[in-house]
Amino acid sequence: MSKEIAPGDRYSATARTLHWITVVAVFVMIPVGVTMSYRGNVLNLWDGLTNGLYSAHKLTGFLLLWLTAGRLIYRLLHGAPPDEPTLEWWQKAGSHLVHWLLYGLLLVVPLLGWTGVSLFPALTVFDLFTLPALTQPNEAAAKQVLGIHGKLALTLGALAILHIAAALYHRFIRKDGVLRRMWPGSG
Question: Domains along the chain?
Answer without folding.
Answer: 7-181 (1.20.950.20)
